[in-house]
Amino acid sequence: MDYQKIKQLRAAVVKYTDKSDSKAWFLFVADISMYIAAISGIIFLENIYARILCASLAGFKIASIFVIAHDAAHDSFVKNKFMNKVIARMSFLLSLHNYSLWLIAHNRSHHQMTNIKGPNSWSPLSYDDYQQLSAWRKIVERVYRTPIGIPIYYLVERWWRDKFYPYNRLVSGDKTIHFLDFSMILVYLTAFLSLLVFAGLNVAHTTPIELLILGFIIPMLVSAFMIGFTVYYQHTHETIPWFRSDDERSVMGGVDELTMHVRFPHWYNLISHNAMEHTAHHVDPRIPCYYLDKAQAEIARVLGDELVTMKYSLPALLRTMKNCKLYDYEEHCWLNFSGEPTTSTILLDESTKFVFAA
């Protein structure tokens, strides 16, 4: 995808960068209300199956509110810049994400170094990298690249390592703002867990342990799965290459955007705030989530046959997870854990369509 084509796409979708406060506040209030209702159901309902359903709903709402936080952190949710910061910080609390660290890990690193090994989620190891791991770490890596490993990977490798506590390796110099955001998370977490324990002691049909599992652990695992799955599917596929450096990425074809466009059912896009209309987001991060579907349609109109898409299906996801274990950064193809190619070489030339391929 050459630079002129990228400019053409950005010009085509710029009309969708205007924000609507009414749409934004409706989504925010609706999501927060549903989350509170789900937590209330976990506490007050007696039927265990209904409570588990509420726990799952709470996790899904944390993930959808995370999308709102993502947009607000890009200053693309409401019109007022200050309110975007407030909404982002409030929304990130539910998933225990540090707002100021998120700006570093996502806005600066991911968007400027898309599909470059290291700073991005789900960066694939080379076969040599994998061979140098300890036996235990090889097992961990194998688990990560399975459906059950998706939430584990996100919680351990992305949230805990990069988006929670301001470690020295993440930030240098003045860390005041990072620790203030971390303190906000601790205050919220303490208050929320205290509420669950208090309710467990005072509501007859439940216990503190039950509420900690149903109100905190299950929702966190569900939200981590949803977030991890979304990020994985946006940037991992048999037709999408990865690179060792930005220089290599430029030399190997001048790639600007490396994202997936997988067509999900309309109902899923609706409840996930168009999270999978990711091509449009990378073309212009200023587009709010509630306009991403329209912007994606505009991109499809401009690109025509150049836009290769795929309809989502569970077999397709499982096939990708089976094929995309390791990556050969010399030959640009995906490998299995034995080092055997599972895809053909991803050609990097002017005719390549992988930039918006699925």
Tell me the radius of gyration: 21 Å
Largest sheet: 2 strands, parallel
Query: Helix/strand/pairing class, anyone?
Result: mainly alpha
Shape: globular
Number of strands: 4
Q: What is the topology, as strand order, of the major beta sheet?
A: 1-2
Whole-number tally of structural domains: 1
Distance between the termini: 15 Å
Per DSSP, the total helix count is 15
Helix proportion range: 55-70%
Q: What is the element string, with H for helices and E for strands?
A: HHHHHHHHHHHEHHHEHEE
Which range does the strand content fall in? under 5%
Average pLDDT confidence is 89
- Which runs of at least 5 residues are low in confidence (pLDDT < 50)? 253-257, 349-358
Task: Tell me briefly what this model is.
The chain is mainly alpha-helical and 358 residues long.
Please describe the structure with a list of short key phrases separated by commas or semicolons.
mainly alpha, two-stranded antiparallel ribbon, 3% strand, globular, disordered C terminus
What is this structure's SSE topology?
Layout: H1 3-13, H2 21-44, H3 48-73, H4 81-94, H5 99-112, H6 127-131, H7 135-144, H8 149-162, H9 176-202, H10 208-235, H11 246-251, E1 262-263, H12 266-271, H13 278-283, H14 292-303, E2 310-311, H15 314-323, E3 326-328, E4 333-335
